[in-house]
Amino acid sequence: MPALTKRRSQNSIVRSDTAANNHRDTKISIISVDLISPNRFQPRKSFDSVSLLRLADSIKRYGILQPITVRTINRDDRPGYEIICGERRYRAAIIAGLAAIPCNVIDSSDMGSAELSIIENLLRDDLNMFEQAESFNLLISTFNLTQEDVASRVSLSQSAVANKLRLLRYSPEERELILRSGLTERHARTLLRVSDTTSRIRFINLIAKDKLNVASTEALVDNYLQYLSESSHQINKANSIGQVTTKNQTGIVKDLRVLTNTIENAAALLRKSGISVETRTEETKNSYSISVTVFKNPRIVSRETSPL
Q1: Is 270 helix (H, G, I), strand (E, B) or coil?
Q2: Which residues are the active-site residues?
Q3: Is residue 234 a contact partner of residue 258, using CB atoms and an 8 Å limit?
């Protein structure tokens, strides 16, 4: 059996987990890793492999200086333990080859375990914005809590909890891209004003490429939404004209010129923001065609407009 810990001195102090160190009925026990399982309510979904290897190397050298916090459970009709705080240390201990580790054993309910796990990670700043949102949603959906209940338990305002939960509107692909691009939570909340996923992904890539701050991102989104609003208004106005007749053809052409100019102005705003946009207007015997193409990658754009 590998050595469990290396004592630095007879008077060395074992520190317990931050959120659980004042919990009643605690005791330190040496427990086999085979009897320990991860927390079902663990909000942290990813563990950096390089960081785990560094911690495992530290454990090999100095042992586990801070016991993990666990509670007793029954697994497959036999007693076992579930981690409340310290899954990263548990994983690193396994990598280091430890067969048993020191644990701070406490009595806790499912809800108490979930709360302690979430609070501990929040205090350590271990969770990214989406993991925080998922953890709040877990408390709400699993334990029938309100946003106010969650806010009081994690020492945040109700509006802060609500803003976190809004981030769950992002798809998994968008979340990964946002984190990989280094965008802040304020960037992410700003982009939620854009309703469709495809456009949001384009904006995420643009913001990361040009290193736009939050203020520039807000201006970019404002311009885009203004473009959508003006385009929708002009299209609705054109549709309300009804059937085209020879008598009112001149008035319709005038309205279409207004629509074309509005689209061109909106496209110009997007080009200033670094987005490659191509507009094309064509007239046939029976119809007018106006198209707008937004390119994923920068390129030389053109405007080919037939006179109306």
Answers
A1: helix
A2: 87
A3: yes
Strands in 78-85's sheet, in edge-to-edge order, are 27-32, 100-106, 68-75, 78-85, 36-37
301, 176: one domain: yes
- 119/37 same-domain check: yes
pLDDT in tens, 71-124: 998 877 778 999 998 999 999 999 999 999 999 999 888 888 888 888 877 776
pLDDT tens, position by position, 208-229: 999 999 999 999 999 999 988 8
Domain range spanning residue 104? 1-124
Identify the residue whose tokens are 């080919």.
304
Q: Looking at the domain assignment, is residue 140 inside a domain?
A: no
Nearest-angstrom CA–CA distance, 287 and 40: 61
Distance from C-alpha of 107 to C-alpha of 73, rounded to nearest angstrom: 10
End-to-end Cα distance, the chain? 86
Domain count of the fold of the chain: 2
What CATH number should be reported for the domain holding residue 57? 3.90.1530.30
Q: Is 0.70 topped by the overall pTM?
A: no
203 & 282 share domain: yes
Same domain, 179 and 293: yes
3-class SS at 9? coil
Q: What's the alpha-carbon Rg for the chain, to the nearest Å?
A: 29
Q: Could you tell me the strand order of the sheet in which 288-294 lies?
A: 288-294, 277-283, 303-305
